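Hey team,

Filing this mostly as a record. A colleague (T.K.) asked me to run one chain through the structure pipeline before their review meeting, and I want the input and output archived in the tracker in case anyone asks later how it was produced. No errors, nothing strange. Just documentation.

Input sequence:
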Amino acid sequence: MSSNDRNAYSQLDQSLIDVPPDTALPSTKATPMMEVVAPANLPEGYTFPVEIGDAEKGATSTTFTVTVPIGGIEEGQTFSVPLPGNSSTTTPGTDGVSRVSIPVGHWKDGLCNCCAYGCFHPLLWNSFFCIPIATAQVASRLNLNWYGRPGHVTETTGTFQKILFMVISYWILDRILILIMVGSIFADISDTNDVDYDNYEGDAFLFSFLAIVRKMLGYLYFIYTIVFLKNTRAYVRQKYAIPEREDCPKGCEDVCCAIACGCCAVSQMARHTTDYETYRGVCCSETGLPPHVPAIV
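Output structure:
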């Protein structure tokens, strides 16, 4: 056997006994899943917060957002979602870390629980004495515009400042009209002793005209307040899947609450969209809360 043949057999023998290098199989990692019970009838793609742990008992809680699967879900239905690894863990009493978790599918409390936090709470006073300001604070929390609708960031920025300017302007103009009307009355009385004065009809016309202007401004202010409050309340119900009351005609609950008891309606929205048991209320801030309060989910 020639040397060339021996080399060929040697190479063949070596190739048969050599162990091929290990090919690394792709590593697989199981995704942890959890079961979520639907809090209400929710449409496909709707997102809502889920909390693991009982913060009320002092335990550490984890809050994250889940998305309703294809086809939607019904109240009480259980569905599986991946457990995110980067959930935000919250510890009670740690400001700036926890997020305010909002109930889904129902209001946090009743429409008439205005005094839930005492008779001297800033929310109570804002709701009773200046409904547009209290509504603007809720709208600012939800990033709504001055009309109570979601929009581009350029539209939703400064909602509270716009409403505050409108309210102050209205009250100043209203007081100016009152002063002019009162002044015309006193001028008319003082001129009755002047035998040459004959402009009584002009004073009466001025008074009547200013009274009509003042009444029209009041109507516009009232209508705007109702529309702003109605739109904001409708958005809160839609965002948190809160159904209308069964004893109210469909589509009428928000406007009925805004007209019949606007102070109670805005107070309920404000209590629903934050945690006043943890964070104090502020009368004149943009959101009705201190600046350090985290955003709602």
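Quick notes for T.K.: Residues 200-239 form the longest helix (40 residues). Residues 52 and 62 are 5 Å apart (CA to CA).
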